[in-house]
Amino acid sequence: MRPFALPCPPEIQCMALESEDIPALQAFFDANPEYFLIVGGEAAGPNLATEEFHELPPAEFSYSRMHYLAFTAVEPREPWRAIVQITSDLMAEGVCHIGLFIVATAQHGRGDAQALFDCIERWAANQGARWLRLGVVVGNLRAERFWASQGFVELRQRHGVPSGSRLNSIRVMLKPLAGATQAEYLALVARDRPDAPL
Predict the structure, then answer these.
(1) What is the DSSP secondary-structure string of 87-106?
(2) Start and end of every N-acetyltransferase domain (predicted)?
(3) What is the CATH number of domain 2-191?
(4) Best label site of 60, 78, 142, 152, fewest CB within 10 Å?
(5) How many CB atoms are closer than 10 A to CB 129?
(6) CA angle 144-148-154, nearest 5°?
(7) Contact status, residue 146 vs residue 115, Cβ threshold 8 Å
(8) CB count in 10 Å sphere of residue 84
(9) Ranges of each domain in the chain
(10) What is the pLDDT of residues 67-106, one digit of tens each?
């Protein structure tokens, strides 16, 4: 792990994961199965961290950078508080896509999700992002409520998306930043228009 310049509260540090951190990422997945049980119907498989860490966007998607980040207490002996995967300029310049955002189960209800997302949003804006984009599994009620409360709106749904042992419906959600608009985004990313082919 190496420090990553994301503006966190003073008691939290953000670290960029590298390939040698895959076992620690798998340990985080194993210790926090709730997300995987909700969206996939089963705990994380033994190779999921390796697969996730090395997974790239589809070949037809442009992007500039991918980051796998862990949030930890400044005291390193504490477990990771959360992980996030971010892709910059996905499909269009200025689109910051949040792939995974998992807060450790022990931290639920403590305001960590809100505080850490605030850090991500500030970082993205400072990097020139104009939109935040993500997908939420329909039925993951905690996540659906949280992202709506942060100002994300649904653009469309995609159905039959595999995760674990399930096929899910995904809400594609967007939050414009810095005066950008949803209409400007949809003019750039035809795939997310409500009337675009599935």
Answers:
(1) EETSSSTTEEEEEEEEE-GG
(2) 12-178
(3) 3.40.630.30
(4) 60
(5) 25
(6) 85
(7) no
(8) 21
(9) 2-191
(10) 999 998 877 667 889 999 999 999 999 999 999 999 998 8
